[in-house]
Amino acid sequence: MPVHRTLCKSFAKFETKPSPAVCRAIYFPVDRANPEFVWLEMDKLYGYTQPDLAVMRKSFLGGSKDYLWPIQLNADFVRMTKVYPHIILGCGSKPPSLDQPVNESISTLIGKQSHGVRGPFIAYGQIKKVNEDGEKYPVVTDLDTTDLTILTNYFLGRHRHDEATIDGVRIYSNRNSRPGHRFNTNTINSQLALCNNGLGPWSPISIFFGMPLAIIFQLPLGEHQTSTPEGREQIEELRAQLPPDSCNRLAALLMIDLGNRKGAVAQDFGTIPSEYSTQPVGDAIVVRKDQKSLNPAYLEAFCDWIQEDLLPKFTDTHDQITYSLSTQYDEDSEEAREQGIALLKLREKMYDRCSRKRFRAWCKEKDIHLGAL
């Protein structure tokens, strides 16, 4: 069930503000099963643009005198996308300590056995406005049901125990793969390196899809090296399970080059990098960045969708880009500007195709029945 459903039932009661002196916030109580909407009182001293910290401590943070400096979330930690309005997350201890109870409402969202988040939390929105002198200043704004996903992803990424396990998926190499034996569950220990982008390369297409996947190949650590010796040792132990006996066509599909959305068009857009397509990388282990379980059937359908539906279109797009770039213009000319716009549109069209809606339509056409992400 989508996480925002835990708030949907109560949203109707919070659509209309009882007064301009409050904002709609999301509260994570320690001793109740679900997060809930609350009205957060604003401080008259600041023209009702900032929360009244004294009231917030008393009403939501157990009267704590140790209110932490707010944590600002300006990105979805799992989906790797920017967020605006920003979300401010406050808690009631400095730092959360063992004498605080485990937060039950957060347990509902991310699993009781997989985290150690303690004490109450409250979240509210924040935007920037500009005063008469051209200076920016923060203003609190309402949150809604969709903001719960961003908060959940923050807790999933930052507060999971290292001792917890993750159900990833092993994709067998070409040599080891056979019909009915291509994808299999592979349980590993949760890694801080996964939170810090050090476990392995990210699948570009999975980021656009909204389910970022890290892939552990039997390749040198290179730029994906983690910051601690312990992290490197853990990852090398995982890699030791993956003998580089042959290429891995299925895992390579996850590494299609999508370039930089805001940068110049890459010559290799829409192609699979040679280090994944031609090198004997062997088996690969795939895990979700949010450390939720990854179902082998889901990943198999995802890879088949890429191969059957998207890859031919990526190939066509790459050919069009290559053909267009074969004609060179002076970089300041009108022709170069028009060429750049046309190439950007080609890329944007492919980005739009990497969607859950298109994937679900493909699954329906193939009579494949999968659960929610």
| Main pleated sheet | 6 strands, antiparallel
* Rounded average pLDDT: 80
From the spread of the alpha carbons, the general shape counts as globular
What is the H/E order?
HEEHEEHEEHEEHHEHHHEHHH
N-to-C span: 9 Å
Question: What report would you give on this structure?
Answer:
This protein has two domains: 154 residues, no CATH class; 201 residues, no CATH class. It contains twelve helices and ten strands. The protein is globular and about 65 Å long.
Secondary structure elements and their pairing?
Elements: H1 5-11, E1 22-28, E2 36-41, H2 53-60, E3 71-76, E4 81-91, H3 104-110, E5 121-130, E6 136-141, H4 147-158, E7 165-171, E8 183-189, H5 192-195, H6 204-209, E9 213-216, H7 229-239, H8 249-253, H9 274-277, E10 284-288, H10 296-325, H11 334-353, H12 356-365
Antiparallel strand pairs: 1-2, 1-5, 3-4, 4-5, 5-6, 7-8, 7-10, 9-10
Helix pairs in contact: 10-11
